[in-house]
Hints:
This protein is α+β, with helices and mostly antiparallel strands. It has helices at residues 4-19, 26-33, 37-49, 66-74, 79-96, 138-145, 149-155, 173-186, 230-246; strands at 53-56, 61-64, 99-106, 109-116, 131-133, 189-192, 199-207, 213-222.
Amino acid sequence: MANAPAAASGVALLQLLARHAEPMPAAAIARELHLPRSSTYHLLAVLSDSGFVTHLADDRRWGLGVAAFELGTAYVRQAPLQRIARPVLSRLVDATTHNAHLAVLHGRDVFYVIEERAPRRPSLVTDVGVRLPASVTASGLAMLAALPASQVRALYPDRESFVQRNELGPTSLTVLNSELAQVRRRGYAVESGSVSEGFASVAVAALDHNGGPAAGIAVTYPADDPPPDGPLVASVRSAAAELSRRLGHRPTSAPAAR
């Protein structure tokens, strides 16, 4: 097992980056892991090639990459999350009389894992197994707004990273960050017509034990209905809070600055 020490160092490096809210300089990584700088740069190069870390050249720092997001969300895409979340969504449908769904982040996409349909409501494109660009969906915006800004930058490094739907959705990081700031101020995300013409959605992120976005809970309603009112938003926020508690999240009195 000649490679075991290197593998252990690679895991330790990923765990270190996961514990920090912001990307770190290579020198700080080497110091905290008690590794030679040459070994640290070698590990970073290997992990970068596989997408687990990304180099933010302008900041001269290293952060988690897209592959780390994919690995981190693999657990919540599986049955445990579905078993935990399904009764929460079922109660949300009863409370709102609209279709509800649960999605997880997968790179720059959202992946739908549950759809609970309300009686006499139409089926939607957001069926189980469907992937859509996160930046055009309410669920995706809610989860992106719960990420540190550095991780959003890593996901959207250039304009080519953005995909519109129905000719709607952000086309630059500046526009996306503006939308995410509104989501944080409101406490929920909205979209209208960017997923399905004639329908709108409101969503809130459910957080895991580390405070990261484990999933997005959304309710979809006809776009010509009045804008989401207090009871509808309150129901979605309550469902997200309940799922967060079930996932081990313990809210703090003062949320960390992002």
